[in-house]
Design goal:
Its EC number is 4.2.1.51. The protein has 9 helices and 15 strands. By secondary structure, it is an alpha/beta fold. The chain folds into 3 domains: 103 residues, D-Maltodextrin-Binding Protein, domain 2, CATH 3.40.190; 78 residues, D-Maltodextrin-Binding Protein, domain 2; 79 residues, Alpha-Beta Plaits. Helix 8 packs antiparallel against helix 9.
């Protein structure tokens, strides 16, 4: 089975993919959209993409592309503990670091460290932490450092100048598995957490109190919501849809009843997936 992930090698997304699948052909893609497009065109059977970070919030690129461009079913999820390190090329002969390169979320997660140790260094954003590590590997003559994980340090033979530079200890990123088909998942090295159902709800523009009534449809059925988030519909200012995560798998009564009640209010409802979620053990995320 071909498994796409946000590359290059050494990203947290690769760690998530390898924590989900025992075997397979793991194929890196340069961007989240290209990874998702590969599933749509059947270049790969599944894609693993980041969806939310505990510190920086949702990965809007994933949500927006999933909703507006490639409506692919979500078939699984995994949360990976995040530990960031400052990586330098061992062949660099200088002592000063002028530029820090990494994914925007990774740089934001290490803000306090950067202000304390490298307050004058320039920041340059890249598509992934793995891409940043690869860039440092390929430019030993530049006064640069990457923020990335230990796997990237090993993959690109970089030196860890500082370890555990993230601002918060309980940091983690959630990833989802997208596929047009039902595939076998082994979830090696990961502990089962819960089943989750994700819905997208679009409110009628002229219905006062619609969101309150939507939430009431879950509340009186005692369905726990683990997340509710608004995103612009891209049809004009003030127009939003809502992504809602419900604790529990799709059943024959409760969630279908919610969908029927919400649709009766004139809202649009799409079920993006009902799937198991797992958590990778911290010692598995740093090997």
């Amino acid at each position: 089975m071909k498994i796409g992930f946000l590359g290059p090698k050494g990203t947290f997304t690769e760690m998530a993919a390898r924590g989900l699948f025992e075997t397979g052909d793991f194929i890196p893609f340069r961007t989240i959209p290209s990874c998702m497009d590969a599933v749509a065109t059947e270049e790969v059977q599944v894609a693993v993409v980041p969806v939310e970070n505990a510190i920086e919030g949702s990965v809007n690129m994933t949500l927006d592309y999933l909703i507006h461009k490639q409506r692919l079913p979500i078939i699984g999820g995994i949360t990976v503990p995040i530990e960031q390190h400052l990586l330098v090329n061992p062949d660099y002969q200088g002592e000063k670091i002028d530029k820090i390169v990494s994914h925007p979320h990774a740089i934001a997660q290490c803000h306090e460290f950067l202000q304390a140790y490298y307050p004058n260094a320039e920041w340059e954003y890249m598509n992934s932490t793995g891409a940043a590590a690869e860039y440092v590997k390929n430019h030993p003559d530049l006064a640069i450092a990457a923020i990335a994980n230990e796997t990237a340090a090993q993959e690109y033979q970089l030196k860890m100048a500082h370890t555990n530079i993230h601002d918060f200890e309980n940091n983690g990123t959630s990833f989802v598995v997208l596929s047009k088909e039902s595939v076998g998942v082994s979830y090696k090295g990961s502990a089962y957490t819960e089943d989750k159902t994700t819905l997208m709800v679009t409110l009628p523009s002229d219905y006062s109190g619609a969101l309150h009534q939507v939430l009431s449809a879950f509340a009186w059925r005692k369905l726990n919501l683990t997340k509710i988030e608004s995103r612009p519909t891209k049809t004009g200012l003030g127009n939003y849809f809502f992504i809602i995560d419900v604790e529990g798998a799709m059943d024959d009564v409760l969630i279908p009843g919610v969908v029927s009640e919400i649709e009766a209010l004139g809202c649009g409802v799409d079920i993006l997936g009902s799937y198991p979620c797992y958590t990778m053990a911290r010692n598995k995320a740093n090997v």
